[in-house]
Amino acid sequence: MSELLTTVPVDVADEVLATTGIGSPLAWQVVSLLALLSALVVLVRWWLHQRRR
């Protein structure tokens, strides 16, 4: 019984990734690009705030 419970969440997660397309490399590239851009925006805003002082 415990073996069944431990394998079910993995199967569900794999199914969700397969049906939503989150597992595709292009989606991960887009997500990482957005994360990089948001980090850059935060860095630029911090730098501008430091210059105003």
TrEMBL record:
Alphabetically list the UniProt keywords: Membrane, Transmembrane, Transmembrane helix
Which residue spans traverse the membrane?
A: 26-48
What name goes with this protein?
LPXTG-motif cell wall-anchored protein
